[in-house]
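sorry for the late reply, my laptop died twice this morning and i had to redo everyting from scratch. anyway the thing you sent over, i finally got around to it. pasting the sequence first so we're on the same page, its 109 residues, then the predicted structure underneath. double check i copied it right bc i was rushing
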Amino acid sequence: MLQNVQQSTHGDNGDDFFKRDAALKEEDKVLAYMLVKKLLKNDGVSEDSGVSGKEIKKQTNIKPGTVDVAIKRLREDGLIAGSGSNYEIPADEVDAVVDRLETRAPKRG
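ok and here's the structure:
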C-alpha cells in the first residue's frame, strides 16, 4: 500500500489505492491516506504531510460528500487537525490512528 500511496502522491490518479483494503469504511480510508502521507513526510519522501479534501477525493476516488463528512468527524474526534485545505494527523495522535486502523482492518486468512 505504501508504494501505491507514494506513486499516487506523485501524479498517478490513485485508482488502485484501496483495492486490497476495500473492506475499510470510507472514514478509515481517509484516515489511512492521511497516515501514509504523514509517514512519507517522516521518511523524507514527501515534502508535506498535510492533505486537502480535494487531494483525498482525487487520490482515493472516495465520493466528495463522503470525504467532507469524514474530515468533519475525524476533526470532531480529535484524530486530525487543520482547516480549509490543509489537514493532518497531529504527532500525538499517530498511535491512536494506528490502533484504530488495526482494530477496524479486515482480518486476513
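Helices lie at 2-8, 26-42, 53-60, 64-76, 94-104.
thats about all i looked at so far, will dig more tmrw
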